[in-house]
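HUMAN: Mind making up another protein with tokenized structure?

ASSISTANT:
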Amino acid sequence: MGLVVQKYGGSSVADAEGIKRVAKRIVEAKKNGHQVVAVVSAMGDTTDELIDLAEQVSPIPAGRELDMLLTAGERISMALLAMAIKNLGHSAQSFTGSQAGVITDSVHNKARIIDVTPGRIRDSLDEGNIAIVAGFQGVSQDTKDITTLGRGGSDTTAVALAAALDAEVCEIYTDVDGVFTADPRVVKKARKIDWISFEDMLELAASGSKVLLHRCVEYARRYNIPIHVRSSFSGLQGTWVSSEPIKQGDKQVEQAIISGVAHDTSEAKITVVGVPDKPGEAAAIFRTIADAEINIDMVVQNVSAASTGLTDISFTLPKTEGRKAIDALEKNKAGIGFDSLRYDDQIGKISLVGAGMKTNPGVTAAFFEALSDAGVNIELISTSEIRISVVTRADDVSEAVRAVHTAFGLDSDSDEAVVYGGTGR
């Protein structure tokens, strides 16, 4: 048997009973002959509570000290889990991100992994131990400071360790039974997907599907690490994410035309009004945004008015970056030459994802017809080879997701989706 990396989210280790349940599952894998590395998140809502505490002490906490604070959550989880495993008669050692060899850049609160040197983990496994690693954290290559990887960073930690240790599979345990055709909290008849390609999963993750972080899937695709998304609350098979279809018995699982419907209500829209319609203006706007280290998503430029020669440019970005983007643009207003800015954080994004839409010309029409029949107005449109995304009012998102899900025959015959925890991670 080979090496398996398992990752457990906050809902799986939310309390002592959850930790003991996870310990039994890890020991079971060890008894089956696997070497096991378990990556854990902080217990329940610990990270959010620590952020709230920091903001009560300081309106703008220093990045370095915030990282030092937040990494305490995973250290609590890993130590308790190691204790629970030892109580079951098996040896376990816990490691922080830096002890596990997770090397990052120096950007606090959203660091990126540069390298993984898991020498201590490998030595521990060779000695017969189960290795427990704190997710979401690493150490800066340059400053040697503790860093955190941002939201969902434990998924990325797990996949990075799986790649560095040449694991057979990276199992991501969460509070749902796998990846569904839509968020089961919104669409009760969402169906579990047995297998999905890295490409489709990347699009779903980028479009708002919370079960896997986009960066985690990107890392897995780069190193061809199969991911098995499943629930820590049940023994059911989950969803396989890989480059090649899986087999169930003698039959190979085929990919559906449409993989699923994702939604995201965490974005805002900025419209730059009265931009001169000439070369270089869009470049100046987005250079300003890039210099502020802000990622943008969808971009639309209106046709310029013939009488004025001015146009409007709209783009979406995370709500959390809205104030910073407005300040950066206002600071460079004279250089860009626009009239005004409009900010709207009451929007939502709905995305239809599926590799089959490349060869099925009716997909786009059916998508927009479903939104029209549901009375949903569209503000922005963006497409790729395997995705169509639209921006609507935030209040219309749930109805729009359900309408599109039904229109493409994705509804289950029964209420299949079960949410065991509370957060979806």
About this structure: Residues 58 and 346 are 28 Å apart (CA to CA).
